[in-house]
Write a structure and sequence with these properties.
The protein is α/β, with parallel strands linked by helices. The chain has 13 helices and 7 strands. It is globular, with a radius of gyration of 21 Å. The structure holds S-adenosylmethionine.
Length: 324
Amino acid sequence: MVTTDYHEPVLLAETLGQLDLKSGSVIIDGTLGGGGHAEAILDHTGPDGILIGLDLDSDAIREAATRLRGYGERVRLFQSSFRRIDDIAAEIAPTSIDGIVLDLGVSSHQLDAPERGFRFGTTGDPGSVASESPLDMRMDGLGDRPPASSLLATWSAEKLEKIFSKYGQLPGSRRLANGIIDRRKSEPLETAADLVHLIRELGIGRGRKHNPATLVFQALRIAVNDELGALEEGLQAAIRVLRPGGRLAVIAYHSLEDRLVKQTFRAAAKGCTCPPEWPACACGIEPTLKLLTRRPIVPDGGEIEKNPRARSARLRAAARLEAA
Ligand SMILES: C[S@@+](CC[C@H](N)C(=O)[O-])C[C@H]1O[C@@H](n2cnc3c(N)ncnc32)[C@H](O)[C@@H]1O
């Protein structure tokens, strides 16, 4: 395997194990990033397996195209959201998707590139000087969604408070939301440093072990990219396109994502949505998934030591059931 600085793949062996790869398998990687998972999948499905790779980010598509060049026709890459996984699958291989992997969140490249505006410090160290990079945070950088700075400039206090408390579970969400509204009357919040200084001035999260800017930046990133909406749609689309027996493996990095994956898998494994006290099922909804992981698989100490960004990873997997 080629190693690059772009992104270190997380829970790699565990994910490959859950996908049950065979020679000739057709696999979708919905979050290509640096192509680490994709490359290992190609190695385990040779000589004729197909890898369909998606990413919102043109940097990721470029990086993965270079890294996977040697696999030739076996690789098909698309700059697209995994929300569209079913449309893209239909174009390539209407009935034979054997596995799908979603490795959620941002890549190390996105976090580390100052111009993308995901990072609040000048280095990865949370105590470092606040970064002067623009508050953008769009994964696709395409501009069809507004950047984080525009949310801060236009959203109401109620809307801002809601995202800080829901997506960041930030103590002091209302104070920060009101502080943003006050500050923008006199000067816009355009850079990571503008926001970090305001968080400090307001004393948000003072005395806490972790830097509160982590929670604020996470909340903004989730809102800017509608990450939970994309995940909800992407999971349903993935379930629709898998062949019976096909595998779905999802790696989540925070509790909101992991909860959504867990609940979606459980609901699909249960099928029927009738109240439990009803004597018989009236909805007729059949189960579509079999759970393969009752509890999430997490990285071991060795992986976390080598790659601290793996710390919060949670892998869940399921297999598509035969349609009734
Ligand atoms: C953690 S990285 C994936 C790393 C990859 N597995 C590897 O081995 O290098 C997550 C990637 O998902 C992409 N991404 C996030 N949301 C997406 C979406 N809705 N659709 C497609 N790609 C998305 C990001 O742009 C990022 O490149």
